[in-house]
From TrEMBL:
InterPro entries: Aldolase_TIM (IPR013785), GH (IPR017853), Glycosyl_hydrolases_36 (IPR008811). This is Raffinose synthase. It comes from the Bacteria. Keywords: Carbohydrate metabolism.
Length: 710
């Protein structure tokens, strides 16, 4: 290991200070590499702005061996690359990096860091947050790092390039930037190492870093803001998984659909999860059709019944990224028919081929068959298990990019892009989906695990810091009959993503769903993925007696939910500030406390103290005053401002259009003189700090409201 001279980037990035490099070859040897000094490289301008480059070369014991670190520095962003050149001569004497941890760049804690938030793969498919004061104990397989120093935030994303995958890991003093080719024979090439970006706001630092990563990768992958959210997921859904697990069947689905209809629960999409396919005991797929015992009339009969009799508009099915959990049965007719478009790993397991053209042929065959049976969407699971099939044979990043490309092309062709990505939070998946907009944001909802809401909320809120730059997070299904059902409902309300349940037959509590949806099943959805407030970023609410606060937006209004996650305290206390929700720039706001059914005023300099008890979330809508009136929207809904389609105020008169009738709430400086609903005078009810008007008779249709002040 070789120590280097200190490096302070003139833009204020103190990341690589000091730095050391260790190299491991595929024969197990660890040769010494000596560092030279930093040198200036080319400067110029590209899509990210003006940049300058600095390089640092390490020379090996063999004169032909070199490792070069290159930093491309912009005003608030750095792209880091590593170039490898190892010995290869005509006599067959070669050096190559070890597939696992071939390079380790060791760095100290970020200078002046006041706290860190990282995300690591605790299973191959999922990430969870790691919150600490420093980086010395970063878990292995860490794939994001955020820190605050001097009032500014820096977001670092290690890269998974075509060949090499970079992760982070604490080393006792600081942390290592670990580079793994995951294939043998990598001895030369230039690979993206990491991206970092700095901003006054944490979420902007993450968004900038994500955009810079996609720029550096130079692939047709887009950020979330440039993707289209599929219409189906604007509506309430139901999934078969926690209702039946692998025992899903035509009969069971029909029974659940009948119950939902009887209870007037307007589910508009159904996802038939794992269990519908014909599979072997070794968890391999034997056919592209449906299990004949569970679906004796085929999928088409179930789909037609759901659509013709139960008001369901979209029906989807689950399948795995690799065909099934352990691939495709080698001795099956399916394997024989598709042999030219399947990939065999070292153990002889078969999966759809990562070559985009071959993979597309496989997916088109399957998806066309599903589309003919009325299937409208897919959920694709086990995505981050790909490494188990290709490691040592194909470059992981290239294989993942190819398989995602072919999958998305087929999903666009047959399902108009209606695809839920799942079990795919490893870097090779996260950074290689070009167009799909929805991706699972956490480990599963486990209805039988005690206190699982604590971990579920923690993962979803904090994972969204990085995951939400590329996707609307799917915060997973839940049960309306669960002890934590209200907490789960509020968590989904501020998620900004799909809302769907997995209740078993006979257990759906419709009252738990009404605050989330309109009467036609459309979800009152927030504007973006929910995020932890900045005062929560570096404090673990499971370990510290503070609430987890999650913010979102609905137009020019703010939303803030607070949850009790602490393992011991019965009550946790926190404060609400206007600044908790970025972008709220008005001087004065009215705040609706949903569960305490009261409202109060708050300005930019004040705060409001509140407490959250175990199992009882808090929810606040933060609404600006306009011409003396602040309109909360439908206060019987969690995302109440979303019910306002348009609003206009002037001269003591406010006119607003509601998307549906319900209980309208508003605050005002003076008592209202009159309220008209669709031109008719309505009774005004004084509440605690606000007023309500009952528009429920107009439920299901738009409502025009006029509020006149005295």
């Amino acid at each position: 290991m070789t120590n280097m001279n200190d490096f302070h980037d003139k833009n204020g990035f103190g990341l690589l200070n000091p730095i050391a490099l260790s190299v491991t070859l595929d024969n197990g040897k660890r040769p010494s590499f000596q560092a030279g000094g930093w040198s200036d490289g080319p400067s110029g301008t590209d899509a990210l702005g003006d940049y300058r480059t600095r390089t640092l070369a390490f020379r090996g014991e063999e004169e032909s061996d070199s490792i070069t670190l290159e930093l491309k520095c912009y005003a608030s962003t750095v792209l880091a690359y590593v170039s490898v050149q190892l010995k290869q001569d005509v006599f067959g004497v070669t050096h190559a990096l070890a597939p696992e941890a071939g390079l380790r760049f060791s760095v100290s804690d970020p200078v002046g860091a006041e706290g860190i938030l990282a995300h690591y793969n605790h299973y191959k498919w999922w990430t969870r947050p790691y919150i600490a004061e420093g980086t010395s104990a970063l878990p292995a397989q860490t794939q994001t790092l955020l820190w605050r120093a001097g009032g500014r935030y820096t977001q670092l994303f290690p890269a998974c390039s075509d060949v090499c995958k970079t992760t982070l890991q604490g080393n006792g003093d600081g942390f290592d930037i670990v580079v793994s080719p995951l294939v043998r024979g990598f001895r030369s090439g230039r690979q993206l190492l990491y991206v970092l970006s700095e901003s006054d706001a944490s979420y902007i630092a993450a968004e900038q870093a994500a955009a810079a990563m996609l720029h550096a990768m130079d692939k047709p992958v887009r950020t979330r803001e440039s993707k289209s959210y599929p219409e189906a997921f604007d509506y309430l859904g139901w999934c078969t998984w926690d209702a039946f697990y692998h025992e899903v069947s035509e009969h069971g689905i029909e029974a659940k659909a009948a119950e939902l209809q009887e209870k007037d629960v307007p589910v508009r999409w159904v996802m038939i999860d794992d269990g519908w396919s014909p599979v072997r005991e070794d968890k391999t797929l034997s056919s592209l059709g449906a299990n004949a015992e569970k679906f004796p009339n085929g999928l088409l009969a179930t789909v037609r019944s759901l659509k013709n009799h139960y008001g369901v508009k979209w029906v989807g099915v689950w399948h795995a990224f690799t065909g099934y959990w352990h691939g495709i049965e080698p001795g099956s007719e399916l394997a024989s028919d598709m042999r030219d478009v399947l990939f065999a790993d070292h153990a002889g397991r078969l999966i759809p081929h990562p070559d985009p053209a071959k993979g597309l042929s496989f997916w088109k065959t399957w998806h066309e068959s599903l589309a003919r049976q009325g299937i409208d969407m897919i959920k694709v699971d086990s995505q981050s298990s790909l490494v188990q099939f290709v490691q040592g044979q194909l470059p992981l990043g290239r294989a993942a990019a190819g398989l995602h490309q072919s999958l998305e092309a087929s999903a666009a062709l047959f399902f108009d892009g209606r695809l839920i990505n799942c079990m795919g939070m490893a870097q090779e998946n996260v950074w290689n989906r070009g167009n799909t907009a929805i991706s699972r944001n956490s480990d599963d909802f486990y209805p039988s695990k005690p206190d699982w809401f604590r971990e579920h909320a923690l993962q979803n809120a904090y994972n969204s810091v990085y995951h939400g730059t590329l996707y609307w997070g799917d915060w997973d299904m839940w049960w309306t009959s669960h002890d934590d059902s209200v907490s789960h409902a509020v968590l989904r309300a501020v998620s900004g993503g799909p809302v769907y349940i997995s209740d078993p037959v006979g257990t759906t509590d419709a009252s738990k769903l009404r605050p989330l949806i309109y009467s036609n099943g459309r979800v009152l959805r927030a504007d973006r993925p929910g995020l932890p407030t900045e005062d929560c970023l570096f404090t673990n609410p499971v370990e510290q007696p503070v609430p987890l606060k999650v913010w979102n937006r609905s137009g020019d209004c703010g939303l803030l939910a607070a949850f009790h996650l602490h393992s011991e305290a019965e009550t946790v206390s926190g404060k609400l500030r206007i600044g908790d929700v970025p972008g709220l720039a008005e001087e004065r706001y009215a705040v609706l406390d949903h569960f305490n059914r009261q409202a109060f005023n708050l300005d930019q300099t004040a705060s409001h103290a509140f407490s959250v008890e175990r199992g009882q979330p808090a929810l606040f809508a933060v609404v600006p005053y306009r011409d003396g009136i602040a309109c909360f929207g439908l206060v019987d809904k969690y995302v109440s401002p979303a019910a306002i389609e348009s609003c206009w105020s002037a001269n003591g008169r406010t006119v607003l259009a509601l998307r549906e009738g319900g209980l309208l709430g508003f605050a005002c400086d003076t008592e209202p003189a009159a309220v008209l609903i669709n031109g008719e005078h309505a009774k005004v009810q004084r509440e605690s700090g606000f007023y309500t008007v009952d528009c429920a008779d107009s439920k299901g249709s738009s409502v025009l409201v006029e509020i006149m002040l005295a």
